[in-house]
Structures
1.
Amino acid sequence: MSSTYTPSTPALPPPKIHPSAIIDPEAELSPGVEIGPHCTLRGAVKLGPGVTLIANVYLQGPLEVGEGTTIYPNASIGFPPQDYKFKPGMASAGVRIGSQCILREGVTIHAASKAPGAGPPTILGDRCFMMVQSHMGHDARVGNDAILCNGAMMGGHSELGDRVTLSGNVAVHQFVRVGRLSMLSGLTAVSRDVPPFCLVGGRNTIHGLNAVGLRRNGVSRDEITLLRRAFREAFRARLPRAEQLEILTQLGRQSPCVQEMADFCAASKRGMVAPPSRSGVGEEASDTDA
């Protein structure tokens, strides 16, 4: 009688804590956690297996950090939102960070503005990479495998889909949504929603499809061809929203990716980024964007 051999997973060692670290009694540390010099954990901070805090990391609960995430020096996570309505002592749903993330030096992620049960925490998905001095505002949400390059900023309540890339010093306005597999080039500012699979640059200006990202993520040639057609017909010119949605809906019957575009645009409350104007300058923000 044959049997299948299943190798055992080595047990993780107990948490390793530098003597200079300050750990709140409410904190929960899983096996394999490493906490370096001068780190401070305040309140209900829960660190998953194998989490590493290199040095001088400041964490404020309620906060959950997923397995295998590494946080570099001078990161500050879970502190109160930059919101005048949030007063000292008010309860917050906090922050939830996924597994296998990398948070580099100076990253800041602010706690949610609502109490537990009244709203979700600020959420960073799995395998995300936040580079030096990047920022997530209160109540922001980021999907899986996203990249925020140096100095990228997300305003409160903004959202990034899976595999979005924000290049250096990109600014995403509060409540703005950025669709899956989109890429925003360096110094871009958006105060309107960005549809999935697109490239955006300048201010609220859409330039094309993220074709390289689509190919790297295994999207078929046929899907990319239909996405190119959808972009050409729906986004190349400035169309009334109803006409734009009609084009996307019709083409979406042939393509799940185009249908994803259509659903995203239909749900937009802020309006969509637009192609360059005849002057070559992107659409300016309205007075309500400030």
Note: Residues 24 and 56 are 15 Å apart (CA to CA).
2.
Amino acid sequence: MNSVSVLVLAAGLGSRFGGLKQLTTFGPGEHTILEYSLFDAHRLGFRRVVCVIQEIHQKFFNRLLAPLKEHMEIEFAYQRLDDVPVEISNPHRTKPWGTAHAVYSARDHLHAPFVIINADDFYGRRAWAQMANFIRQTPSGNALVAFRLDHTLPPDRPVARGICHANGDHLVKIEEFSRITRSNGTIRALGREECFSGDEPTSLNFWYLQREVLREMDFKRFFAHGMNLMEAEWMLPVTIQDLLDEGKIRITVVNTQSQWVGITHPDDVEAVTSHIENATRSGIYPKEIWRTKPPTCPQE
């Protein structure tokens, strides 16, 4: 496990949240979701972290992760708007290029297989244990830890989710839905005549991939679709789907019963806080993980 990097996608700007949500703190110890994720990773044997960030936020992440350096090797990779082929560059774009580009941005820091996580998604100890178990049993494979759809839905608003379709335990397709909501006991996709049972495997970007996948990631393919270079994003699930369709990758779906929480909107803070407080009271996490004083969270 020592050779496997944890690749943290933390370069989002938090426009819907109204600030840098990756540094928002929760629970009795005032820790970020990322700290809980890396605490789970560390106790399962992971010892190397590559954190993809915006370079302007370096000082905040330095302070946040400084205590971890006694326990884990920490490196930073920058997601830059100009890290694209010259014919694709757009001097007027201000938003990051997307999650596939974030992974691509870390290519020079990844020399072995790696686990991908979002900095603002709380996956939980059970999901991390299942990921570690897969890696120990199948180190040369690729995997997605998939959550039950009904374990990923906030109570009162629609969210985007990637529903996974598998043949046995092998991923065949990720179907993206932009607005899935739960209301009066029914889960449905807004704007589409489709309802869900709630047990559908759902992707939250918790992947284990071999380094060879990086060689197959092609920004020019994204560009060839004629995307709006001001708004379009090169997304990881779309890239993975392309590789699945071309037979270039085989991915095992590891289903978990773990409960997800995360932050997209300010209204999410209460639910995340409650979940972490319950986990702390249950003894799953200590009150103090890595440090005693949280970093100051910059506001947009």
Note: The first helix runs from residue 33 to 43.
